[in-house]
């Protein structure tokens, strides 16, 4: 299972255009608010120069990059939390996602209807944030009622749940996301996770600046988002979609002509990856060289479980070589000879760039 980023935002801001560019999955980009009510899912490989370097030094038949999944969620409108504009479906589609990418419109085009009348990215971001907060308030309210009924028996743990809900309500009532609260206690953190709140998910803003987006527009987005630690990635949606249709070998040249080193999409994928707090490790056993992603701080047995559940269950140890040591040594046998391959036990947390061989009982 890969990590999922949902592409959300008001209608007609360029979500499907960006999704198409990202995945070349062919979701319809049309000038109509609800054309993508069934969420479209696209799998996007992560650009990974380290994987290429490893593949250059080890014989293989196949190279498999890590992937992120993007979901093109239907447009959200003001009042979605109250069911407007198929709002309930919209919110249900976001709940299982790991992170959200909020696309904000900066491009001007009189032919494309604007949901709220005129170009105003900050107001648009506020509408989206508010709908997520309102949806969470409803969820928290329901959990609180349930806990309150159960707390009649005087169970301390359940009483604590009521207090947690009240703390969440205070934060959400002030218009802030639930992620503003931190839960040190593991059980409390679990209670909050159980609610699958929308505003605890990492969020990033994509400014769809278009061909004619004004710098002031982008600036206002940055001023709004950055104090809240929200990453902002500017993208020229329509042009990126056109670039994505070019043959691979022409894309680079096209970008260079524009004075760009990388496409906005590449930056979007990278930022999404960073936002999710992921690390990459590599396996080179057999004929396949493969990159895997896990959350930072994942213990070795769980990382092995990404590959196969048997490997987690029967985990014995992990033989680990850092990417830097591998490159310095030049090959696997050389790295072994130099004593760079470490044997790690079940408490070892996978680090970014580890090249790993799991030993397990089948
Ligand atoms: N001029 C211009 N039009 C765009 C851009 N991105 C999207 N559009 C147009 O805006 C309309 C709505 O885009 P779409 O991706 O379907 O928006 P969604 O409702 O957010 O999924 C389409 O007609 C797109 O061609 C852009 O960067 N520049
Ligand atoms: Mg769409």
Structure description:
The protein is α/β, with parallel strands linked by helices. The protein folds into three domains: 171 residues, 3-Layer(aba) Sandwich (Rossmann fold); 69 residues, Orthogonal Bundle (DNA polymerase, domain 1); 64 residues, Ubiquitin-like (UB roll), CATH 3.10.20. The strands form three sheets. It has a six-stranded mixed sheet with strand order 2-4-1-5-6-7, with helices on both faces. Strands 3-9-8 form a three-stranded mixed sheet, with helices on both faces. Helix 1 runs parallel beside helix 8 and helix 4 packs antiparallel against helix 5. The longest helix has 30 residues. The site of magnesium ion has 4 residues, from helix 1. Magnesium ion (MG) binds next to helix 1.
List the helices and strands and how they pair.
Blueprint: E1 3-8, H1 15-23, E2 40-45, H2 49-57, E3 62-64, E4 67-72, H3 87-94, E5 99-105, H4 121-150, H5 156-173, H6 186-194, E6 203-208, H7 215-225, E7 231-235, H8 237-244, H9 248-257, H10 264-275, E8 278-283, E9 288-295, H11 300-307, H12 309-313, E10 315-321, H13 323-329, H14 332-337, E11 342-344, E12 355-360
Helix pairs in contact: 1-8, 4-5
The protein binds guanosine-5'-diphosphate and magnesium ion (MG).
Question: What tags apply to this protein structure?
Answer:
binds magnesium ion; Rossmann fold; single chain; six-stranded mixed beta sheet; alpha/beta; Ubiquitin-like (UB roll); binds guanosine-5'-diphosphate; 3 domains; three-stranded mixed beta sheet; 14 helices; 362 residues; DNA polymerase, domain 1
């Amino acid at each position: 299972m890969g990590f999922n980023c949902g592409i959300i935002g008001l209608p007609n801001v360029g979500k499907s255009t960006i999704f198409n560019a990202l995945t070349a999955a062919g979701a319809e980009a049309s000038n109509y608010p609800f054309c993508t009510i069934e969420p479209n899912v696209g799998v996007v490989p992560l650009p990974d120069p380290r994987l290429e370097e490893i593949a250059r030094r080890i014989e293989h038949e196949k190279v498999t990059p890590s992937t992120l999944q993007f979901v093109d969620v239907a447009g959200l409108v003001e009042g979605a939390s109250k069911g407007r504009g198929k709002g309930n479906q919209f919110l249900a589609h976001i709940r299982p996602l790991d992170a959200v990418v909020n696309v904000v419109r900066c491009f001007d085009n009189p032919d494309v209807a604007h949901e709220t009348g005129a170009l105003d990215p900050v107001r648009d971001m506020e509408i989206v944030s508010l709908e997520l907060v309102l949806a969470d308030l409803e969820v928290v309210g329901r959990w609180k009622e349930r806990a309150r009924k159960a707390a009649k028996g005087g169970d301390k743990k359940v009483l604590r749940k009521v207090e947690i809900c009240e703390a969440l309500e205070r934060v959400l009532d002030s218009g802030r996301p639930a992620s503003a609260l931190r839960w040190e206690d593991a059980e409390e953190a679990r209670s909050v996770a159980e609610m699958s709140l929308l505003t605890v998910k990492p969020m990033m803003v994509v400014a769809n600046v278009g061909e004619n987006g004004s710098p002031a527009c982008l600036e206002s987005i940055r001023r709004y988002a950055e104090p809240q630690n929200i990453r902002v990635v500017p993208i020229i949606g329509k042009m990126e979609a056109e670039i994505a249709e070019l043959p691979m070998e022409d894309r680079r040249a096209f970008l260079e002509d524009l004075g760009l080193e990388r496409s906005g999409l590449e930056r979007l994928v990278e930022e999404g990856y960073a936002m999710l707090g992921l690390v990459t490790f590599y396996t080179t056993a057999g004929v396949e060289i493969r990159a895997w992603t896990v959350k930072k701080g994942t213990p070795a047995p769980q990382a092995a479980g990404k590959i196969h559940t048997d490997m987690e269950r029967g985990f014995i140890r992990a033989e680990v070589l850092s990417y830097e040591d591998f490159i310095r040594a030049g090959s696997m046998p050389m790295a072994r000879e130099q004593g760079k391959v470490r044997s790690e036990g079940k408490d070892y947390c996978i680090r970014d760039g580890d090249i790993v061989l799991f030993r397990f009982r089948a």
